[in-house]
Amino acid sequence: MATSGLYPQTKVLSRSFDVKDGHTLAVARERGAYQALEKALKMTPAQLVDEVKKSRLRGRGGAGFPTGMKWSFVAKNTGKPTYLVLNADESEPGTFKDRYLMERDPHLVLEGCLITAWAIGASTIFVYIRGEYPRSIARMEKAMEEARAAGLVGKDILGSGFSCEAWVHPGAGAYICGEETGLLESIEGKRGHPRIKPPFPAVEGVFRCPTIINNVETLSHVPWIVLHGGDAFAKQGIAPDPANPRSNGTCGTKLMGVSGQVRTPGVWEFEPGITLRELVYGYGGGPLPGRKIKAVIPGGISMPVLLDHELDAKMGFDELVKAGSGLGTACAIVMDDSCDMVDASVNIAHFFAHESCGQCTPCREGCHWMEKVLHRIADGDGQPSDLDLLEGMFKSIEGRTICALADAAVWPVRSIVRKFRAEFLARMQPAPAPAGA
Length: 437
Ligand SMILES: Cc1cc2nc3c(=O)[nH]c(=O)nc-3n(C[C@H](O)[C@H](O)[C@H](O)COP(=O)(O)O)c2cc1C
Ligand code: SF4
Prior knowledge:
- By secondary structure, this protein is an alpha/beta fold.
- It folds into three domains: about 25-235, NADH-ubiquinone oxidoreductase 51kDa subunit (Rossmann fold, 3-Layer(aba) Sandwich), CATH 3.40.50.11540; about 255-335, Ubiquitin-like (UB roll) (Roll); about 340-430, NADH-ubiquinone oxidoreductase 51kDa subunit, iron-sulphur binding domain (de novo design (two linked rop proteins), Up-down Bundle).
- It has helices at about 25-30, 35-40, 45-55, 65-70, 95-105, 105-120, 135-150, 180-185, 215-220, 220-230, 230-235, 275-285, 315-320, 340-355, 360-380, 385-395, 405-420, 420-430, and strands spanning about 85-90, 125-130, 165-170, 210-215, 235-240, 250, 255-260, 265-270, 295, 305, 330-335.
- The strands form three sheets. The protein has a five-stranded mixed β-sheet with strand order 8-7-11-9-10, with helices on both faces. Strands 3-2-1-4 form a four-stranded parallel β-sheet, with helices on both faces. Strands 5-6 form a two-stranded antiparallel ribbon.
- It contains 18 helices and eleven strands.
- It is about 40% helix and about 10% strand.
- The longest helix has 18 residues, at about 360-380.
- Flavin mononucleotide binds near residues 62, 65 and 214.
């Protein structure tokens, strides 16, 4: 429902978020759940993949890869089973959108998975949920149990001849298990160490079998696309940039969140087109009384910060890259003028150093060195040459590792060091001599 003066919300994925018992099969079915599955099972897998390609749906896990294209890469006729894995690790700091879907509308999530499984030829779905989300785990398990009893999961679903099982696999709470191949290792019972790609999971994934892995929000869009058609989805949101043949736009609707130093943190759903400013000031309620906004990371913690005067960029994949950042998870983290940016950079660097799996030298050593140097500056023992040292580290880390965790460590820290250079230099000045000395 539009709130006067604000960019309007469009409730598609979130339409049952506030409905009493919306997580139960009875209420979900009254509200249309599993109608799309019924329709999808009368379509061929190839038709479904085509429809999702037409929709221009892009992955909502952070990287924005076109979903239909990913599905079309799944290896066929391998003689091995094909798996669908739902990435419900939601380990990105400041991000809590997938949790809303799993807790408030788990049947939508499950329906999206079942349709996807049919489209890619999978007969097993693993839903990998972070261990710190006990309610999401319980709601998804209950939804599977209800759906199994109603003939929506298991053998011969809705009399279609299609059989598919679904299981929850709880994680143990490691950021790196959100990275798709780290997650696959974890499902296999090993340490969450990302794999070198290629081979990509669509060819060799979990248990070395063809696997499609998608984010919770990504697959929750699939039932709407089946019911309304890919073209209708592609018409919503931000169209591809005609001047850029590689642009895919930001179509459909998108869950977006705000957390940090704002009055009203939360999650909302929009047709992309809303600016970061409208999101943070309008829906997030703006800064706390007497404060000013200093820096915003548009999505999670892994993107460069934007300053208050840079917030007019639209919340779209291409638009935020043009603005010098990225959409990431579209859940913005807001820092106000009480936030010390040197301390913030130490905090961010500490997180990544702690979460590095340690396989790649630039990440294992680089993240720790970055943290150490930033700590030194925060403690007042830094020198201006430390800023050059940090720039050298950014270069030695970025783009040189197995997975993107190391890049994700560099991007926010580098943007803070560059945009708040004066704060770093001020921290290096010798403290004034005590009075009377
Ligand atoms: C360090 C790291 C952590 C990640 N964590 C998550 C996560 O918690 N949830 C998620 O969906 N994707 C996460 N991703 C992205 C996944 O690797 C992958 O791109 C995504 O699950 C693909 O699904 P999508 O195409 O539907 O977005 C992470 C990536 C990296 C490098
Ligand atoms: S980049 Fe870091 S987290 Fe990723 S595989 Fe290498 S060491 Fe592990």
